[in-house]
Amino acid sequence: MNQSINANFDFLFYYQCALAVAAILTFFTDINSYLYTSGIVSQPPLFWILGFAVASIPLAFSRSKYIPISVILWCFGFIFVSLLWFVLFPSSGELAFEELRKRLLALIFIIAMTLIFSGNKKIHYLARWAIFLAVLVTVFNSIYEFFNPGAFNALGNGGRVTGFYLNPNSNGCALILGMIFSVTILQPIYRLPFVYLVGIGVFLTFSRGAILGWLVTVIIFTITRVLHFNKLLYWIFGIGIFIIALGSQWWEELLQNFDLNANSLERIAWFQNISTSDSENSADSRLEVAQLAWQMFMKHPFFGNGIGSTLIWNLEISTHNIYLYYMADHGIIGAFILPILVYAVTQHARGETKYIGLAFAVFILLWGLFSHNVLEERYILITFSFMAAMTGTSRLEQKLKLGYQL
User: Fold this and answer.
1) Helices 337-346 and 378-405: angle between axes, nearest 10 degrees
2) What is the pLDDT of residues 24-70, one digit of tens each?
3) What is the dihedral of CA 392, 127, 225, 172, to 10 degrees?
4) How far apart are CA 325 and CA 319, in angstroms?
5) How far apart are CA 53 and CA 19, in angstroms?
6) 374-394: per-residue pLDDT in tens?
7) Diameter over CA atoms, the chain
8) Contact (Cβ atoms closer than 8 angstroms) between residue 62 and residue 12
9) What pTM value is reported for the model?
C-alpha cells in the first residue's frame, strides 16, 4: 500500500516538474506568441493557456499543492471590480467585452501557473534554471538580431531588438525578470558576469524603461549583498568608460558599419544627448497619452469611465502606464490594483526569497510606469505566479524551522 502511495507521489512530482519547466519555456520566453504571430504554428496562445490549465487540474488533488489565499482574494476582487464596472458602464461595447475577456483569461492563467509551481522547493529550483536558460537564449537572440536586423521581422517590431517578444520593451523587461529569479542560483563568482551579460541584452533593446529597471535592480542586489560591492566598482568603471565612448567619434564610426534602422538610430541619438527634445519623439507621444488619461481620471476620479475606456480614444496607443490605465477605468481604486497584487505575492517571503521578492516588487512597480500591459503579458504573469509559489514555500519552511526549534 505504501509503495502505491509513493509511486503516485513520485508520478505527481515528476509530472509537476515537467509542467513547470514546460510552462517557463513556453510562456516566459513568449515563444508561443512568436510562433503563432510569425505563422509557424496555427495554434493561438489561448490554446496553450487552456492546455496548461487543464494539465494542472490533477495537481489540485495533491495535499501539498495550494494557491495562497492572498492571491485568491486578489483574483476575486479584480474580477468583481471588472464585472461591476462592465455592467455600470456599458458604453464601451465590444472593446469593453474584449478587455473583460483578457482580464478573465489572465486570472485563469495566474491560478493555473500558481498551482503548477506550488508546494516544492525542488520544482522552484528546476524552474529557476529553466528561467536562466531562457535568459541566455534571449540575450543570444538580442545580440544576433542586433547584427542581423531582419532576423525576427515577422513580428513587425519596427526594427529594434525583440527576439521572441512582441516589442523591444518586452524583451528588456523579460531579461530583467529572468535575472531577478535566476541570479542567486549561481555561485557568487558568476553573478556579476551574468548580470552584465543581461545588461548588454537590455541595452541593445534601447528601451529607456528597461535600462532604468536594470540599474535599479542592480542597486537592490548590491544593497542586499546578492552582488559584492567591491567587485561592482570595477564594472561601474567600465560602464563609465563605455558611456563616455557613446559621444566619441569612434562610436559614430562604429555605427556606420551597422545596418541600423531609423528607430534604433533615433534612440541612440537620444541616449547621446538626452536634453535634445527632437531627437526621438516617442517620449512626447507617451507624455501626450499620459496627460489624456490623467484628464479622463480627473473628470471621474471616484468611479472612472468603465473598463476599456482608454481603448476608445482616437490615439493609436494607450497610456503606457498601468496606473493611469486602471485609474481611467476605475477611478482612484485603479491605482491600487497592481500594488495589491505585488503585495499579495511577496508579503510573506522569507530567507533568500525575501530578497528576490524585494527586487521583483520594486521592478514591477517601476515597470508599471512604462507599460499598461503588465497584467496581460504572460511572460510577466507567470512570474507573479512563480513569486507567489516561492513565497508560500519559504513561509512554510520558516514555520517548520520554528517548530523544530520549539
Assistant:
1) 40
2) 999 999 999 999 988 888 889 999 999 999 999 988 877 666 788 99
3) -110
4) 6
5) 10
6) 999 999 999 999 999 999 888
7) 76
8) yes
9) 0.88
